[in-house]
Amino acid sequence: MGDYPKDLQHFFVVGLSYKKSDSAVRSRFAISQEQYDWILEQANARGIAELFVLSTCNRTELYALAPDVETLISLICEATGQSEEEFRQFAYLYRAETAVQHLFQVAAGLDSQILGDYEIVGQIKIAIKYAKEKAAIGPFIERLFNQVLATSKLIKNQTALSS
After folding, report:
1. 24 burial class (0-12, 13-18, 19+ CB within 10 angstroms)?
2. Contacts of 134 by beta carbon, 8 Å cutoff, 6+ apart
3. Rg, Å, the chain Cα set
4. Which residues of 27-60 are buried (b: 16+ CB within 10 A; e: fewer)?
5. The pLDDT of residue 1 is above 60
6. Residue in 32, 102, 115 with CA at minimum distance from that of residue 64
7. Which of 96, 98, 124 is nearest to 109 (CA)?
8. pLDDT grade for 162, boundaries at 50, 70 and 90
9. Do residues 148 and 107 lie in contact, with contact meaning Cβ atoms separated by under 8 Å?
10. How far apart are the C-alpha atoms of 135 and 49, rounded to whole Å?
């Protein structure tokens, strides 16, 4: 099951945000600390090479190097006890370059309710640090995150986006 190239084509984002779902829907798919632990425990058994979860009041997202997007959808729905049908109704599913672009937009505050919201970078840092402590982050997400961090710093320091 874990036998697939650990490359860009296997990098996915599945999630919900304020754009397509209201707070009631988002709260049902929000990931608690216990659920995050469960997801990280399950990840390896399901062939997920690398993974972190970003769960805030405005979004719940799984970023992962995985065999396929279905694995991630079932993981988030099992963790939250919600139906895959409902998740799919409100979710976005990104792969490869689109998934990477999404992460950059989120970290830059371009995908926030408040344009330029810089708080999200701290939330991403915490999510990745936690996943790393649980050995769920490898070289792919590590390198990607370093680029995302550098880019979000440039945006904050060289534009007025956060103002």
Report:
1. exposed
2. 37, 40
3. 15
4. ebbbbeeebbeebbebbeebebbbbbbbbbebbb
5. no
6. 102
7. 124
8. low
9. yes
10. 10
- Does residue 163 register a pLDDT over 70? no
pLDDT of 157 reads 78
Q: How far apart are the C-alpha atoms of 64 and 99, rounded to whole Å?
A: 10
The Cα 17–Cα 49 span in angstroms is 25
Helices 139-158 and 119-133: crossing angle, nearest 10°?
160
Which residues are part of the catalytic machinery?
57
pLDDT in tens, 17-38: 999 999 999 999 999 999 999 9
Q: What's the chain look like in SS3?
A: CCCCCCCHHHEEEEEEECCCCCHHHHHHCCCCHHHHHHHHHHHHHCCCCEEEEEECCCEEEEEEECCCHHHHHHHHHHHHCCCHHHHHHHCEEEEHHHHHHHHHHHHHCCCCCCCCCCHHHHHHHHHHHHHHHCCCCCHHHHHHHHHHHHHHHHHHHHCCCCC
pLDDT in tens, 78-120: 999 999 999 999 999 999 999 999 999 999 888 887 776 778 8
Number of Cβ atoms within 10 Å of the Cβ of 109: 21
